[in-house]
Predict the 3D structure of the following.
Amino acid sequence: MKWNSALTDYKHYLKLERGLSENSIESYSLDVVKLIRFLDDNNINTTPLIIDSNTLKEFIYQVAKVVNERSQARLISGLKSFFNYLLFEDYRADNPLELIESPRIGRKLPDTLAIEDIDKLSNAVDLSKPEGERNRAIIETLYGCGLRVSELTTLKLSDLFFEEGFIKVTGKGNKERFVPIGPLTQKYITIYRKEVRIHMNIQPSFEDTLFLNRRGKQLTRAMIFTIVKRLAEKVSLNKNISPHTFRHSFATHLLENGADLSAIQLMLGHESITTTEIYMHVDRSHLAKVIEQFHPRK
C-alpha cells in the first residue's frame, strides 16, 4: 500500500465511518501529508504498512524544532488516528506511535470579550455600506447563538424558526441541534433579510443560504475572519480575536450569569461535557454565588 492510496482511504473512513466535517478531515489529512513530505525530503523508502516507531520518532523530533508543544501534541494525535485506522482495517498489526507520548500541555483557556467590547465591535459596523447590515447581523449571530464559523456560513433561511425562538444549526459530523435566538439577534437578521438580501442577485443553489457575499453566493470562512479582524482594528481592540472568540464569550457570559453547564453544552453542540467544562476555568467568581444560593449550609 502506497501513502497516497492509504491517505485517500483514510479520508473516506473519516467521512463515512466517523462522520467528520470537511474541515476536520482536512486537518487530520494534513498530519499525514507532513509525514509523507518528510519521508520524501529525506529519501526514506518506507510504506504505511512497514514504517517503524524509530522513523516516526525522528520525524516528530524534527517537527519539534519548529513548532510549539501544542502543535506537536496535535500532530501526534493526528498520526495516531491514521495508524489506528490501518490497525482497524487489519492493514497493520500494531500502531507504531502507541508508545510515543505527547508533550504535556495545560488546557488553553479561551480568549473572551467583555460585553462592552462586543458592543463596540457591533456598533463599529459601517451601515452606510451595502454589506453593513449583513456584517452586523453576522457579529450578533456569532455572539447571540454561540456558533462555530462553519455553522454560521451554512446557516439557511429554512433553519430560522423565529416564532418559536430557535434556529436549527448543523454542527460537526452533520449533527443538528436547536439553539435559542434572542429578539435582538432576530431583529438584525430580519433587517438584513428585508432591506438588503431581498434585493440581491442570488446565484442558483444559494437561494436558501442566509448570509451571502456580493456575488450572491455563500460566504467563506476566511471572509468571516476578515470581517472580525477589520472591526477589531477599527475599534483598536488590543486582543487577538477570531470568530470563535464570540462563541467563547457566549458560553462564558452565560456561565457567569448562572446558566447550567449542561444547558451550555447542548447549545454549543459539545459531545462531551468535559469540553464545556473549560469555561469553568475562565472566571470562578460566580461559583461562590452558586454555593451561597444553593448549598443547604449557607
User: Anything to note?
Assistant: Residues 91 and 245 are 41 Å apart (CA to CA). The chain has a mean pLDDT of 88. The radius of gyration is 23 Å. The longest strand covers residues 166-170.
